[in-house]
Amino acid sequence: MLTVILPPYLKYRGTGIEGLQYCEPTEGAVHCAVGNPLQSDQEISFALRLDAADIDYSIYGFEIRLIVNTTSFEVDYEDNADVLKVKVILETDIFVKGSSDPVHVYYGGEVVGESATQFLEDIGPALKHSYEVKNLGKSTSPSVVIEILWPYEVEIGYPTGKHLLYLTDPPQVDDNFTQCSYDETKVNRLQLPLKDLKADDRISHNDSEEIESPSNSRLRRSGERAPLVSRDSHVIGKIVSLDCDAGTARCFGIRCKIERIKPGNSVVIAILARIWRSTFVEDYRNVDHVRVSSKAQLEIEFGENIRQLHHVNSTDKAVTIAFPDIRIQGLRRVPLWIIILSVVAGVLFLCLVVWILWKCGFFTRNRGVNMQHRAVVERPDYHYNLLQHSTVTLPRRHDL
C-alpha cells in the first residue's frame, strides 16, 4: 500500500494507470494499492493527477511525502519513506486592453469661455475610456496595479494649459475589491451640474452627434470608418495627436490596485469625461482630425516564483478621434501653392489650345477681298467676254 500525503492546496483528480487496483483519497492523503501481491524484484511506475489551481502566489514550494507499507515481514524499514520537494513557479499572462466609447466624436459651434460654461452639456460630447485587465494564465495572479495617464490639458508651454478631456466622474470599477487613488480635485473641477438630471446618461452617443453635419451623419449610418490621413503621406490635410508620450498633452495619474485575478477573470475600469469643445473649435478648426489618447500600464508584483509570459500586453491606449464639423471645414483657407499651381496649369492649357488652333490653320484663313482678287486673276477671259457681249445705251442730250 502506497500512501501519498498532500498539502492542503493540492487536490487529487485520479489516475488511469493500469496495474493499480484502486486509489482512495482521504483528508490530506491518497492511498493506492500497488500490488497484491507484489512479486520479488518487481517495479511499478504510475502517476497521480493533482490539481494545483489553489496554490497561492505566496507559496514558493511544498513537499509531498510518500510512505509504503506491507503486511509482510520486512528486513529494512528505512527505505519505505521518501519526500518529493516541488518548487512553485506561477506563470501569469495579465493583459490590459483599452477602448473608447464612442470612437468618433464631432466638434463645432462657437467658442465658449470657462466662466460662461454653466452645465456639463455645455462642455462638449461625452465619452468613456475603458481598460480591461484580464488574466489569461493558468494561475491566480498576484496584486496588479494599473496606472492610467489621463490627458486633461493641452500642452501649450505655459503653467496652465487649455482644457482637453474634462473628467466628470470618479473612475468606475466593476470589482468591489479594487481601490483607485487619484487627485480628486481633477474630477469636475468646476462643479458643473447636468442640465437634464432625469437623463443622466454621461456616455450617451447623442452628445457626440449633437453637432454632427449631414455628411458625417451619413458616414456614421453607413458604418464606414472615417479616413485616417497622415501628414507624412503627402496628402492634403493634417492630423493632430494629443497624448502623454508625445508631450502634447498634460496628464495626471490614476492608480488602481487589483488584489487578485483568477484565471479567465477580468476587471474593467471606466473613466467618464467630456471633450472640451471650445479648445478644439479655437485651435483645430483647420485639421482633418485630432487623436486624443489616454494610456494604461500594468505593474505586477513579481517575485522569485512569479513569471509574466507576455510583457507586450502590459500597456495599451484608448484613442478618441475628433473630427471638425463640416461648417468649420468650409472655412479652411486654400494653400498658396495650390493657387499658383492652378494658375500655371491654366496658362499651359491655354497655350496648348492656341497651338492646336494654329496647327489647324485657324489663324491663317483668307479674307473676302483676297478671294475676289484671286477669282479675277484666275479667270480674266470672263471679264473680257462680259464687256464684249454687253451693250450700254447712253441717253441723248435732248433727253436730259
Q: Would you write up a description of this structure?
A:
This protein has helices spanning 205-209, 214-222, 277-283, 326-329, 336-359, 368-378, 380-388, and strands spanning 2-5, 11-14, 22-26, 29-33, 49-51, 61-68, 81-87, 90-92, 94-101, 104-107, 126-135, 144-154, 162-163, 165-167, 172-173, 179-181, 239-242, 249-258, 266-275, 289-300, 306-308, 315-324. With 400 residues, the protein is of the alpha+beta class. The strands form 5 sheets. Strands 10, 12, 13, 16, 17, 18, 20 and 22 form an 8-stranded mixed β-sheet that branches. Strands 3-4-1-6-7 form a 5-stranded antiparallel β-sheet, with no helix packed on it. Residues 204-236 have low confidence and may be disordered.
Describe how the helices and strands are arranged.
Elements: E1 2-5, E2 11-14, E3 22-26, E4 29-33, E5 49-51, E6 61-68, E7 81-87, E8 90-92, E9 94-101, E10 104-107, E11 126-135, E12 144-154, E13 162-163, E14 165-167, E15 172-173, E16 179-181, H1 205-209, H2 214-222, E17 239-242, E18 249-258, E19 266-275, H3 277-283, E20 289-300, E21 306-308, E22 315-324, H4 326-329, H5 336-359, H6 368-378, H7 380-388
Parallel strand pairs: 8-21, 10-22, 17-20
Antiparallel strand pairs: 1-4, 1-6, 2-5, 3-4, 6-7, 9-11, 11-19, 12-13, 12-18, 12-20, 14-19, 15-19, 16-18, 20-22
